[in-house]
Design a protein that fits this description.
The protein contains three helices and two strands. By secondary structure, the protein is of the alpha+beta class. A two-stranded parallel ribbon has the order 1-2. Helix 1 packs across helix 3. It is elongated, with a radius of gyration of 14 Å. 4% of the residues are buried.
Length: 68
């Protein structure tokens, strides 16, 4: 596995492996984009040329409320 930040190593590794999908865990939330998928996932999303599956941790409760 390459060493470095996810933003720098994930896309080249996925391309090298000819990955069909990259699975990322998301925990931190900052701002609107961080609330939806997480800051690291957001940072690598545009770099990847394959599908991305973002997984929230067990027990995650969204702070977003739907208007009724």
């Amino acid at each position: 596995m390459p060493k470095g930040s996810a933003e720098k190593v994930m896309a080249p590794l996925a391309a090298e492996l000819q990955a069909d999908i990259v699975v990322v865990g998301t925990v931190a939330r900052t701002g609107i984009s961080g609330l939806i998928i997480g800051n690291t996932a957001e940072a690598i999303l545009d770099q990847l040329r394959c599908s991305v599956l973002a997984i929230k941790p067990p027990g995650f409760k969204t702070p977003v409320k739907l208007d009724e």
